[in-house]
Amino acid sequence: MRSLVEGVAQAIADLRIVDPSQWALRLGALAALLLAAALVTGMAPFGSPQAVLLTLVVLLLGLLQTARPDADAGLVAFCVLVIAVVIAGPLGAGATLALAALLMVSHALWALAASVPAHGVVRRGALAATVRRALPALGIGLVAGAGLLALAGAGAAVPAWLMIPGVVAVVVLLVLLLPRDGAPPAPRDPTAPRDPAA
Amino acid sequence: MSGSAQPRVPSGGVRTPAGPPLRLRPTPAHTRAVVAGGGAGAIAVLAGRPDLLVVVLPLLVWALLAHAALLLRAGAPGPMAEPAPVLRLGTDRLPEGGTVRASVHVAPGTVAGVVLPPRAHAYTTPRYATAADADAVSLSLTVRRWGNYRIGPVHVQVADAAGAFRAQSVLGPLDLQVTPDSPILEAPVDVPSVIGISGAHISRRRGPGTALADVRPFQAGDRLHRINWRVTSRTGTMHTNATFSEQDTDVLLVTDTLVDIPPLPSAPPESPSSLDVTVRASAAVARHYLAAGDRVALHDLGHLIGPVRAGTGPRQLRVLTDALSRATREIGSGRAVRLRTVRTGTLTVVFSPLLSEPVIAQVGDLVAQGADVIVVDPLPLSVGDASALHGRPERRPDGRASDRFWAEAWVMRRLLREQIVRELRERGVPVTAWEGPASLAPVVLSLMAAGSAPRIRRS
């Protein structure tokens, strides 16, 4: 019982030292993810058992990602939402673009929150640099996406013979963009002797 | 990281040397974007669902733009390399209570996250010394206590603006010297004995000076500009002004660094220990007499500060404050470094809590050699304060009663010490507690008055 109380007290103490800028980034990312889940459920997150399940799973994964922005829980949450869209069927042009924007916003905010520990201050310069990089990606993605949806809506069907090159293109893109190395290395010990061959 | 180049570091201050370039690695955010985007894209193609591709298209574009920025940046040391960050301190020497800016500079267009380890008696802004910013991250460090500080090592995480690639580095440490606070003493610069050649103190001898001693008849050899024409015209005989000569003196600071007595836990935060008071009071007294043109030296009975030879002027003040600020808090072997000889008439200020026999014996030696000795007591006032006792044992952090009675023991020790203080005063050695800039004035004046007072001699 005593260890439980101490654990809770330690958790409260850890929450108290989180900087307000970190609260804003992480809760903003979580809010965007939850709003994306609501979009997938047709703005009825508790309208059906499936919607409730989806909302709770995304909420849990979002909380894990909020606590540790470098974790893979956010990736699982993205995959859950994509699978939900596959099962539920097309959402409509506006909802699809909004979903894309919300996922991008949560992704960018978590990426910035991971730049410093939770008790660290994220200053305006860092936020401005992130916005300058994220906005063009969002704009290009939404414009291209709107064009793609317009083509699909006009009845332009993808020929069957494009399937194989299309899959190959996706695989090549994956190979090009996927990270080749593991997690960043541990900080180098400045007192350790340097390897002259390195 | 578009337009990446070397970090722009302002001139001045001290900085770490430029290190080798850092190797960039993809971040978990990059992995999320690529895996989610690639997976959804593959499903979109296989299932003929363009809406799935639209959902993840911004993420894929984000990852592509990050790669493109990495490859197209100018001035970079390599496609996956980033110039090493640089740690800079605004200054390497600071007065007690001063503030210095510590900044980490990275390549333009890059975001840096910085973690500075905490140091005792040093307060940072922001509070936990952790921040992220673009191009340069600045932290303010306010140091409350004298000494040598090592700022760092600083942990730095360098990332592109999107957060798709990052590298880590450790910088420093850099040394920062904090000199003790030396308040201006509210005391006269008078000394009991003057033993130098020329200075600011009026001696009892007649000689060249500015203080009028007498008006006497003119004698052969007297300076013509000293003739007192008013008395001459009234008496009809040539008279001249006689003056007291002005001399300087030797001031010797003797510090007892054999022990460092901390204040009781019940004392206010940042209360000084005996070593803190010793260092600050020494600096204040040195500054006071160096400003008057006297020669000031320092002898350390312990091994923390080291001896400083006599000197004058602002340079000597800097030498003394440097020596005082270099003192560490490691208590040595406890064997006193005795001072063998001292010039008769030297004003000797001994900073000691008078807790060890060798120090008390040293005070006796100094008096026997003819020095004018003042003892300044740096023992914290909270230590041995009987009014703080409440008849109940102290509580440990776990709530149990402590079996150590430090407060009571110190009360008894202070009572025992009172006998030593009384004996010293009976021998003409003033003992005063250091209570700030006004501490020394009454003591100096009483020492001058006690110079001719009878003293108890042991038969």
From TrEMBL, chain A:
The domain of life is Bacteria
TM segment ranges: 23-44, 50-67, 74-93, 99-122, 134-154, 160-178
UniProt-recorded name of the protein: Uncharacterized protein
Q: Which UniProt keywords apply?
A: Membrane, Transmembrane, Transmembrane helix
From TrEMBL, chain B:
- Keywords recorded for this protein, A-Z: Membrane, Transmembrane, Transmembrane helix
Locate the region Disordered. 1-27
Domain of life the protein comes from: Bacteria
DUF58 domain boundaries: 214-378
Do you know which InterPro entries this protein is assigned to? DUF58
> Which residues, by range, are in coiled-coil regions?
none
* Record-annotated membrane-spanning stretches: 52-72
What is this protein called in UniProt?
DUF58 domain-containing protein
State the species of origin: Brachybacterium phenoliresistens
